[in-house]
Amino acid sequence: MRTNIKSFLLCLPLLFACGAEETVVEEKASAAITSVSLNKEQIQSAGITEGKPVKQLIGLTIYANGTIEVPPQNKTVISVPFGGFVKSLEVLDGMYVKTGQKLISIEHPELIQLQQDYLEVIGNIEYLEAEYERQKSLVQQDAGSMKAMQLAKSQYTAATAKKSGLKAKLDMAGVNMKQLNAGNLQRYISIDSPFDGVVTKVAVNVGAYADPMEHLLEIIDLEHAHAEVTAFEKDIKHLKIGQKVNLKFSDEDKMIEASIFLIGKEIGKDRTVKVHCHLNKENSSIAPGAYFKASIYTGASERFCIPSEAIVEMNGKNVVFFSEKESGNLTTYSPEEVTITAIESGNSAIEFKNPTRTYDNTLVLHGAYDIMSAILIQGEE
Q: Which of 50, 62, 108, 197 could form a disulfide with 221 if both were Cys (CB 3.0 to 4.6 A apart)?
């Protein structure tokens, strides 16, 4: 076959230049050449043969793209509930932190006022409790008025409620209550890391004012990163929980193995479904958002197949050639894009991009490279 191809390629310039009716039909110079017409002699010389795709058992591998994501429960946004000025920033973007490690400190007069109000309530509540007990005792002895006892009770209850409210606010602000109960007011409030992770998206500077609930920075736990594969709707029927997935990153030579954990039920506007995959081994070096190409082997199934040599790459697309008889003894060959769904033992399972094509149509099974070469040579003339 190699001898035939070489002979055919050597003959092509002569055949195209002869000007006879059996020669290739010239395309317009202004248009891109995407087809070629060959005569019977050229077709025989190149060994071009045609046939229909044959249904056979072949291992089906689904190819898709995706990104590394982190579950919501392993991602947290750091903010301040009461606002304040950033006194210090202890971390940088990309820095690893431990649980309880100081991230940022905030100062604001409102925080000091809250602590002051809390201590005043603590100091007053003891008196109000004692007054309430005294009035209750007088009523029991018929020596006091019910109104005075109810007033004392109301004042004591209100102070207790205020104490609880202030304590809740101070807890939210991260105030050390043990120090505060000892009478030590804290000018700076420290915000600590809630878990081990990596700092991302630092959006604050020292000296800046941090509004309440503003996202100052984010911490993610890389040990629980997972692969989010975007699969096409037509491939979902072949996917099952537990199937093996190989991930190939642009900056990695080796494959990383994962397994399908969840298959989304919602089909997006682009006719794709999210497939959640767990890495077989935790890999903290993989950054969230990293892009990868995934290959999912779904097992053997019956598919329409053609010899792999019938498929060539033109302009970055996988194409096959269809023929059309012309006047005289000329046959025109035109490429059409196909999708390769599986490759095994020299055969490829295909799907046509052109919706009008069916598997009953004949196409070129042998000699596709010769046809492509003829198109390229014709385009250079």
A: 197
